[in-house]
Amino acid sequence: MVHCYVVLWIPTVNHIPIPFDEPLHGGTRTENISDNPDEKFLVRIKAEDKDINISVSSVEDPERFEDFIRLRYEDFSHNGMVKYSFDSQFLDDSEFGFDDKNFPEAVYHMIKSLYHIHEFHEDESDSSLKPYLSTDDIDIHKENNAALRHYLCNHERAVLDLVKNAKTLLRSVLETEKNKGMPEEIRVYESFPSMYVMALGYDTYIHSLYDSIYNNECSIHNTDKSLRRRAFNIENSVRYFNVLNVFFDTKIRQVNNLSILKKAEANLKNSEESLKQLEKSIRTAERSLSISQDSLNTSQSTLETANDNIEETRNAAKGSTRWAIGGILFSLVIGVISIFYSIHLSNESSRQLEEVKIELLNTLGTVENYKTANSSDSLRFDNKQIVKSLYDNKPEVKSDSAN
Q1: DSSP assignment, residue 136?
Q2: Which class for 165: exposed (0-12), middle (13-18), buried (19 or more C-beta within 10 A)?
Q3: What is the dihedral of CA 334, 340, 345, 348, to 10 degrees?
Q4: pLDDT band at residue 121 under the 50/70/90 scheme
Q5: How many helices (H) and strands (E) does the chain have?
Q6: Residue 93 has pLDDT above 80, yes or no
């Protein structure tokens, strides 16, 4: 077991102190750091005061974590460097471990995430840096100390790799334009903005090291060629990206303008087609309107004829009604007259019959008187005379037709 030191650089701006008392994520972070997607190897870090306790998932129970190693806080500087000490430790039959040559970058990234917010770049654009390791103690407040040199060298390598990728992208774009000559068909422009954001993030944070009071040898004025070149690369990398940004921004604008122009032409063509369809629809509507007008005129004529027929029918009905009412009234009058005349005849006949009845009764009384006074022969003779007299004296009944 070897006693080791590690200096981790936590990106900071303007020498803002590292928030050891208020770590992010509740001071705990758990991640699967296995390189094999079919396997799971969970590592958990936990900030305990300023120390970092590292535990790993149990082989028997992946949900249970076992303490593995503890990073003991030693010191920090205002340019973002934090020094820890630890005793070397490796898992049995595993490459996972910590010593003066090995410190998993994934664990470094997890520790950095407890105190560093990705304020000037995306999370996936975070730099991948190797931590500074040593078996010798180091004074991180000393000018041009080994840890500072280590991280400046790492940053130079990172920005040069980014510049190399940008140059490769530029050559690809120029070659594609040369072959196709159609900028609107090139999609590689869209990959540059994320690369530019990463370069800006590097430039923002690297100055906490490059411009710190502890650096006075990495400078473009240094006589040492390697240190002068490093300073030049650090200072000019973002300038190179600024120039590239102008180039790609122009290309993107051209693509967008061409795209807008093509869409405008397509919209204009569609508008012309729509105008033709509209004119055709207007002509059809005019024909339909003419037909509708003719139909309306025919309907109005039919309605007028129907109104005339209705008026004639109404007038005829009124005349027929008057004649019918007159006939009915006339029939009623005739009927009433006939009834009254029939009643009169009936009364007259009744009166005459009553008179005949009275005369007959008188005559019969006379006959009875003769019966008692005369003989049977003279009675028969007298009866004959009486009967004859009755027939002679019978009144004549007038018929309706005579009246």
Answers
A1: S
A2: middle
A3: -160
A4: very low
A5: 5, 9
A6: no
